[in-house]
Design brief:
The complex is a heterodimer of chains A (151) and B (189).
Chain A (H helix, E strand, L loop, with lengths): L7 H20 L1 H19 L8 H19 L16 H6 L8 H12 L4 H7 L4 H19 L1
Helix pairs in contact in A: 1-2, 1-3, 2-3, 3-6, 5-7, 6-7
Chain B lengths: L6 H13 L5 E9 L2 E7 L4 E5 L5 H11 L3 E3 L5 H11 L17 H10 L8 E2 H7 L6 H9 L12 E2 L12 H10 L5
Parallel strand pairs in B: 1-4, 5-6
Antiparallel strand pairs in B: 1-2, 2-3
The chains are: A mainly alpha (151), B alpha/beta (189).
Chain lengths: 151, 189
């Protein structure tokens, strides 16, 4: 049986800290505050339509990621990457993050969620509204593209 | 430094969620009332829940099942109920001026609760009397069950319903609370 959608309070409390850290690492503390509120308001607007309570962590991070991308489109960022948050224990991703900005959105989301947030491909697929295989493909296409750009 | 959303940011989101009308239920927990902690929930139609359960998790799940999953702690929408409860518990208010949202209650419950709402401050009645007023004098026991599951105790005054022999009988929130409320209203000494 599918996992029931939890009360929004439970969802919010479970993911707010990670979403906030994700946003700070992407766009800096100041802009993260507005993006944080927008992320959870957007989640709230879509919450009624959720059919089950699986992959909610991936879903929250995907929304946050989309908000960041929307913001980028409006105002091209100024390369002000914040200090690395080493307590997070995600240095690999912190180094990767600034490089992923120019990836196509789906590949970028797949790379970030896989390598930055350790999500399984099944979770990423669900969060992106596609399949596990498509998520795996998007992530590896993204990594290939990054390697090419590095050279 | 570990980044966490600040208290202000957290509260700002909770207020915005309610202001945008995105919540099925807004609730808050009042820790410091004479009745102990109270969880109070409201919908856009009115007050839907008062609970003595200090651990809200189970309450939230129940609210989500009846009213929808967008259940969030947000203090502004429950301000008015909070104020009226404070006034009542301090002896400065005798009736509540809030709309109720009793969606999800079976018809029989709604009829009994409507009769219950007419029992005034400082009065008591019996389960049998309430059953008779609802049109079914033999349903005293069923009325007792409705009282026990009253979604908005205090505001719908199930504490004013006692046994035919005058004993307090029972209370969903514990007998000590029933006694406290009846004493507050001067219905018992």
């Amino acid at each position: 049986m599918a996992v029931a959608v939890p009360p929004f309070e439970t969802f919010y409390e479970s993911h707010k800290t990670e979403v906030f850290r994700f946003l700070v690492s992407r766009i800096g503390r100041d802009r993260a505050e507005d993006a944080f509120q927008e992320t959870f308001l957007r989640a709230l607007r879509a919450y009624e339509r959720l059919e089950h309570g699986e992959h909610l962590r991936a879903w929250a991070l995907t929304i946050a990621n989309r908000i960041v991308l929307d913001g980028h489109r409006r105002q091209r960022p100024q390369g002000d990457m914040p200090d690395l948050v080493t307590e997070d224990g995600r240095p690999a991703y912190e180094e990767l993050a600034p490089l992923t900005d120019d990836l196509p959105p789906k590949e970028r989301a797949a790379v970030v969620l896989r390598y930055g947030y350790d999500l399984g491909y099944d979770e990423i697929g669900a969060a992106l509204g596609s399949t596990e295989a498509a998520a795996r493909q998007a992530a590896s296409a993204g990594v290939r593209r990054l390697r090419k750009e590095q050279q | 430094m570990i980044d966490t959303p600040t208290f202000e940011l957290d509260e700002r989101f909770r207020a915005a969620a309610a202001a945008e009308g995105l919540l099925d239920v807004a609730y808050d927990v009042f820790d410091d009332t004479a009745m102990g902690p109270l969880l109070v929930g409201v919908t856009d139609r009115g007050l839907c829940r008062i609970s003595f359960d200090p651990n809200p998790e189970r309450e939230l799940e129940q609210l989500a099942r009846v009213y929808g999953p967008r259940v969030l702690r947000s203090s502004r929408p429950v301000d008015r109920v909070h104020r009226e409860l404070d006034e009542y518990l301090e002896g400065r208010r005798r009736s509540f001026d809030v709309d109720l949202d009793l969606r999800g209650q079976p018809d029989f419950y709604v009829r009994v609760l409507a009769e219950l709402a007419r029992v005034g401050y400082g009065e008591t009645t019996t389960y049998g009397t309430l059953a008779a007023r609802t049109g079914n004098p033999r349903a005293a026991r069923a009325v007792g069950t409705v009282m026990n599951r009253n979604p908005v105790p205090i505001v719908l005054p199930c504490h004013r319903v006692v046994g035919a022999n005058g004993s307090l009988t029972g209370y969903g929130g514990g007998l000590h609370r029933k006694e406290l409320l009846l004493r507050l209203e001067g219905a018992i000494l």
